[in-house]
């Protein structure tokens, strides 16, 4: 057997840290910590606040030097205007991104779930080799393999297609999904499933009705992570797609600032439309992510 | 994968059983081999081929692409910058993350909100974050110059991204900014695994906070730090959107790393073979880091 075995601890165990101070903390300490904490939060949010403030400025005000901190008039209509733009085509790009990210996620789960389940439940020849392959490929990024990906897509005639992007996104997110799902399946006692099987639920029934619901946090994490990864993906889309109607939102956004136009207010309005939903999704899965991303490297 | 080893006594059902894993793992295996491993092979093959600027393969080139790459006058600068980029960004990220994790591990009102704020640069597209920084650093319209002038540090605006050294320093700062959340959360989860009794024992031994941190916390964080460092080295090395959004590696190749340089060779200069050679060199370096990673992870597994 290989040393690369599935984590048998629940991934949650490594999340919420417990505070260890026993003594009643002095008031001053709490005050200082709070001040520093909020300052840090502000620093991390600052670029996105700047995004929002710029997105709300009226067009002429963008070219004011030195710039104003706040918009003189809050132009909320910028957020409505972006939808009808044709260069870049924001609404088309949004739908295309949804399609690519959605299909990538479905494909990843469709092939990842059975693989993760089987490797967690069965010992067989080649299991160690398979998990090693997953562990190694989790460290590969499309950026490093760009030339190879491009050449492959050319020879498969998949450049400038949604399918090409879906395949790449699904494949490169698959290792992470297999790891995290494997850990979840392994943490669910086999006996629960056996019991349901004995009660006549059938192998598949037992898996779908008992194991899958218990592994739901892992499934949701894998799903959200793949979706966000595909949603934010830039370099592959930049390289293998070229048509206007096959442009993801991330690839479309730099198109607001070119030699022909500089529309930072629309660039940032569109960016926020792309960012806000994924941040909300991310907040829900953050505590499950670390164990999967570090591939069991830390307990 | 292991197909059935043809044993004479094995019945049909046994042979089928041996093929069962393939049924469950087959699709995943096909996707990984077809879309992750194939490009690796294709990349190595391309680096050994003579390919015209229009993409026509003219035959085997031997080491010609590599020779051409190593003769590029810009290459030494690019390699040196990549080294500064990776070492600088990862060191700064880990150092700041240690402090951030400590902060997030202590109790104070609004801690949950601070954690949420930290998630934003992690979840948001790196490209969009980098574009914001480019706008904020704009010579005339950027808020960075405005702030620095308002507090009296500058008396006239600076065109930050026009000068290679300044631009590169800012891009490193942005790369640190987007790497911090993940790293801080990894270290935070490492802090969560340190049992309270250890701290209690240190306190009874009369160790002060600094002493406790140096001789208890840091050594126990070693596994988390190691994993965080390795994953960061790979991510930072591959970082493309930060540089692409802010300077495109320009002026010329003055702010390129080997990653953006590889992209420019293939898609700006149409030198596909030479770009593949650069990619193979990059990939070999990453593979080396992955091997170190495997050793670290496996050692943990054996202990655990």
In brief:
The complex is a heterodimer of chains A (299) and B (304). In chain A, helix 1 packs across helix 12, helix 4 crosses helix 6 and helix 6 (162-187) runs antiparallel to helix 9. Chain A has two domains: 25-54; 85-293, Orthogonal Bundle (MetI-like fold), CATH 1.10.3720.10.
Task: Describe what you observe in this structure.
- The complex is a heterodimer of chains A (299) and B (304).
- Chain A has two domains: 25-54; 85-293, MetI-like (MetI-like fold, Orthogonal Bundle), CATH 1.10.3720.
- Helix content of chain A is 65%, strand content 0%.
- Chain A contains twelve helices and no strands.
- The longest helix of chain A is centred in the middle third of the chain and has 32 residues, at 90-121.
- Chain A starts with 26 loop residues before the first helix and ends in a 6-residue tail after the last helix.
- In chain A, 49% of the residues are buried.
- Chain B has two domains: 19-65, no CATH class; 75-303, MetI-like (MetI-like fold).
- Chain B contains twelve helices and two strands; from the N terminus they run αββααααααααααα.
- A two-stranded antiparallel sheet of chain B has the order 1-2.
- Chain B is flat and about 75 Å long.
- Chains A and B meet through helix 1, helix 3, helix 4, helix 5 and helix 6 of A and helix 1, helix 3, helix 4, helix 5 and helix 6 of B.
């Amino acid at each position: 057997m290989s040393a690369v075995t599935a984590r048998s601890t629940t991934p949650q165990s490594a999340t919420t840290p417990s505070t260890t101070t026993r003594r009643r903390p002095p008031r001053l300490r709490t005050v200082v910590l709070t001040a520093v904490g909020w300052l840090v939060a502000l620093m991390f949010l600052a670029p996105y606040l700047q995004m929002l403030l710029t997105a709300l400025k009226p067009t002429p005000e963008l070219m004011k030097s030195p710039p104003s901190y706040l918009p003189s008039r809050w132009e909320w209509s910028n957020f409505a205007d972006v939808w009808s733009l044709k260069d870049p085509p924001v609404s088309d790009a949004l739908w295309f991104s949804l399609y690519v990210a959605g299909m990538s996620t479905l494909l990843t789960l469709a092939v990842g779930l059975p693989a993760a389940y089987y490797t967690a439940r069965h010992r067989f020849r080649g299991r160690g080799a398979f998990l090693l392959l997953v562990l190694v490929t989790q460290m590969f990024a499309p950026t490093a393999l760009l030339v190879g990906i491009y050449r492959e897509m050319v020879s498969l005639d998949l450049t400038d297609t949604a399918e090409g992007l879906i395949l790449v996104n699904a494949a490169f997110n698959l290792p992470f999904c297999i790891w995290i799902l494997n850990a979840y399946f392994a943490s669910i006692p086999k006996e629960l499933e056996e019991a349901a099987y004995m009660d006549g639920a059938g192998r598949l029934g037992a898996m779908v009705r008992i194991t899958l619901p218990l592994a739901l946090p892992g499934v949701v994490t894998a799903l959200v992570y793949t979706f966000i990864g595909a949603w934010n993906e830039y370099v592959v889309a930049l390289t293998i797609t070229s048509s206007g109607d096959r442009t993801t939102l991330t690839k479309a956004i730099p198109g607001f600032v070119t030699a022909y136009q500089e529309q930072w207010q629309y660039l940032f309005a569109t960016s926020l439309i792309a960012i806000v939903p994924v941040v909300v999704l991310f907040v829900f899965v953050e505590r499950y992510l670390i164990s999967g991303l570090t591939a069991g490297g830390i307990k | 994968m292991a197909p059935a080893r043809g044993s004479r006594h094995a019945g049909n059902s046994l042979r089928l059983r041996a093929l069962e894993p393939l049924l469950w793992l087959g699709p995943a295996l096909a996707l990984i081999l077809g879309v992750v491993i194939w490009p690796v092979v294709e990349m190595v093959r391309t680096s050994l081929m003579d390919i015209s600027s229009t993409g026509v393969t003219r035959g085997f080139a031997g080491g010609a692409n590599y020779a051409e790459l190593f003769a590029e006058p810009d290459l030494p600068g690019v390699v040196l910058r990549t080294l500064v980029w990776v070492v600088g960004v990862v060191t700064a990220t880990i150092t700041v993350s240690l402090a951030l994790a400590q902060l997030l591990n202590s109790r104070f009102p609004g801690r949950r909100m601070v954690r949420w704020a930290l998630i934003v640069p992690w979840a948001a597209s790196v490209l969009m974050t980098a574009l914001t920084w480019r706008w904020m650093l704009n010579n005339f319209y950027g808020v960075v110059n405005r702030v620095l002038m308002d507090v009296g540090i500058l008396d006239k605006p600076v065109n930050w991204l026009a000068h290679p050294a300044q631009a590169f320093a800012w891009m490193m700062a942005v790369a640190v900014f987007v790497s911090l959340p993940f790293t801080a959360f990894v270290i935070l989860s490492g802090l969560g695994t340190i049992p309270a009794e250890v701290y209690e024992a240190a306190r009874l031994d009369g160790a002060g906070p600094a002493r406790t941190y140096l001789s208890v916390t840091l050594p126990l964080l070693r596994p988390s730090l190691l994993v965080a460092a390795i994953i960061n080295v790979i991510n930072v090395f591959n970082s493309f959107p930060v540089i692409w959004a802010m300077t495109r590696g320009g002026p010329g190749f003055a702010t390129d790393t080997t990653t953006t340089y590889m992209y420019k060779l293939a898609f700006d200069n149409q030198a596909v073979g030479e770009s593949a050679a650069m990619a193979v060199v990059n990939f070999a370096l990453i593979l080396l880091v992955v091997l170190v990673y495997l050793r670290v992870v496996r050692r943990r597994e054996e202990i655990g």
